[in-house]
Amino acid sequence: MKIQELREKKIEELKVRLQELAVSLHDLNFKVANSQVKNIREIRDVKKMVARIETIICQKELNK
């Protein structure tokens, strides 16, 4: 999802997406520990998306 698409969403939608990513990151960490994931880069991508969403939420809350 691109940053422009994220900026168009409401804060509530972003928080739901953030919770989904947190669960996904948790699952990925367990899979890496069990050597079930071949592409470890997925973890980095999920972490970056979490940071982007948190930044956008913070910006929207400051602009209110």
Automatic annotation (TrEMBL):
Keywords: Ribonucleoprotein, Ribosomal protein
Xref: SUPFAM superfamilies: Ribosomal protein L29 (L29p) (SSF46561)
GO biological processes: translation
Domain of life: Bacteria
InterPro entries found in the cross-reference section: Ribosomal_uL29, Ribosomal_uL29_sf
GO molecular function, one term: structural constituent of ribosome
GO cellular component labels: ribonucleoprotein complex; ribosome
Recorded family membership: Belongs to the universal ribosomal protein uL29 family.
Name assigned to this protein: Large ribosomal subunit protein uL29
Organism encoding this protein: Candidatus Falkowbacteria bacterium RIFOXYC2_FULL_36_12
Lineage: Bacteria, Candidatus Falkowiibacteriota
Gene name of the encoded protein: rpmC
